[in-house]
């Protein structure tokens, strides 16, 4: 009874107004929380569709951000870079209880060391800030990372871009990451550095939003430092096989040995081909295990049954005509 009263009065701010923020607002608005969406411009559709309040903010104005966050209990960020760093600072000044950074990918422990991550975009700085402000003090701010692996939507028609996601990442388009389902082609790492199969954890963005909303029901004060969830865990070989089976066509597949990926990276770096370097870097990060983990701690804690990749693929693409 006490926890229900507490959550009913809780105010939640979602930073960003893209596709994933919309999914979060949709799921969280099903409960009695007061939802505030922070955006650089007006989004009346959030107020109409999800009964949310939208605050137009300037992420470079710390005082404005702090004022907007006064009385907020939980901040969920879908933004990155310098804007998220300012948001963290404003949140702790406004005495926000808990902060969820925009880290919806592989587990924290599987990422490259700070200063060596090609996809960092101030992520390591944000996590370091959050670690600092979570230390016991008069007004500490907890934080929790939600690790979900790769969004299924990377393989959607049009890619992440068509879902209004991944604005700051370099794999926004259809076919930018391992498999182009529409064209029936794939390029995947053959093995990890130890010569074993490469595994990838994946979850639908819709289910990630459902997981986050369900976790809120557990009570944010009980949250661990990291929640891990997944919809599917499979090898890169099985990934393109499922795509081929669902589409009913044979895929053209390039399987890259680990050493070959490293060689191509050197070649693209020497030739200053940034686009292809980043493409190959994603294959290397996948081979290094960035997007896989074993045990989850959120799947069994909440009543969410995530969709399998095969089912999502069938619903999204279906057999080729």
Multimerization state: single chain
Uncertain stretches of 5 or more adjacent residues: 1-6
**What is the helix fraction of residues, given as a range?**
25-40%
Which strand order does the major sheet show?
3-2-1-4-5-6
Mean of residue pLDDT values: 93
Distance between the termini: 54 Å
SSE series: HEHEHEHEHEHEEEHEEEHEEHEHHH
Structure classification: alpha/beta
Cα gyration radius (Å): 20 Å
How would you describe the shape? globular
The total count of strands amounts to 14
Which percent range describes the beta-strand content?
A: 15-25%
Tell me the major beta sheet: 6 strands, parallel
Number of helices: 12
Write the layout of secondary structure elements.
Elements: H1 2-9, E1 11-15, H2 19-28, E2 34-39, H3 44-50, E3 53-56, H4 62-69, E4 74-77, H5 81-93, E5 98-100, H6 123-133, E6 142-143, E7 145-147, E8 150-151, H7 159-162, E9 179-180, E10 185-189, E11 199-203, H8 205-218, E12 226-228, E13 232-235, H9 236-247, E14 252-256, H10 258-270, H11 274-287, H12 309-316
Parallel strand pairs: 1-2, 1-4, 2-3, 4-5, 5-6, 7-12, 8-11, 10-14
Antiparallel strand pairs: 9-10, 11-13
Helix pairs in contact: 2-8, 4-5, 5-6, 10-11
What's this, in brief?
With 321 residues, the protein is α/β, with parallel strands linked by helices. It has helices spanning 2-9, 19-28, 44-50, 62-69, 81-93, 123-133, 159-162, 205-218, 236-247, 258-270, 274-287, 309-316; strands at residues 11-15, 34-39, 53-56, 74-77, 98-100, 142-143, 145-147, 150-151, 179-180, 185-189, 199-203, 226-228, 232-235, 252-256.
């Amino acid at each position: 009874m006490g926890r229900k009263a507490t959550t009913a009065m809780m105010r939640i701010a979602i930073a960003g107004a893209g596709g994933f923020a919309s999914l979060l607002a949709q799921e969280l608005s099903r409960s009695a929380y007061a939802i505030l969406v922070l955006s650089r411009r007006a989004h009346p559709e959030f107020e109409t569709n999800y009964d949310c309040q939208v605050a137009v903010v300037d992420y470079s104005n710390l005082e404005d951000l702090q004022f907007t966050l006064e009385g907020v209990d939980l901040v969920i960020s879908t933004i990155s870079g310098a804007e998220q760093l300012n948001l963290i600072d404003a949140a702790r000044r406004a005495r926000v209880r808990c902060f969820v950074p925009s880290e919806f990918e592989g587990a924290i422990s599987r990422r490259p060391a700070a200063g060596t991550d090609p996809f960092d975009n101030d992520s390591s700085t944000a996590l370091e800030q959050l670690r600092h402000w979570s230390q016991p003090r008069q007004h500490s701010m907890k934080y929790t990372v939600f690790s979900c692996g790769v969004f299924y939507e990377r393989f959607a028609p049009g890619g992440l871009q068509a879902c209004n996601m991944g604005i700051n990442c370099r794999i926004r388009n259809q076919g930018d990451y391992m498999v182009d389902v529409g064209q029936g082609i794939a390029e995947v790492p053959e093995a990890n550095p130890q010569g074993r199969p490469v595994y990838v954890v994946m979850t639908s963005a819709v289910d990630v939003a459902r997981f986050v909303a369900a976790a809120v029901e557990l009570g944010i004060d009980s949250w661990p430092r990291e929640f891990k969830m997944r919809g599917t865990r499979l090898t890169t070989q099985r990934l393109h096989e499922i795509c081929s089976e669902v589409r009913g066509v044979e895929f053209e597949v390039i399987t890259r040995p680990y050493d070959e990926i490293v060689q191509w990276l050197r070649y693209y770096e020497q030739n200053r081909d940034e686009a292809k370097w980043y493409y190959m870097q994603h294959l290397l990060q996948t081979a290094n295990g960035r997007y896989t983990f074993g045990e989850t701690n959120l799947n069994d804690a909440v009543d969410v049954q995530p969709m399998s990749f095969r089912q999502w693929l069938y619903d999204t693409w279906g057999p080729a005509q």
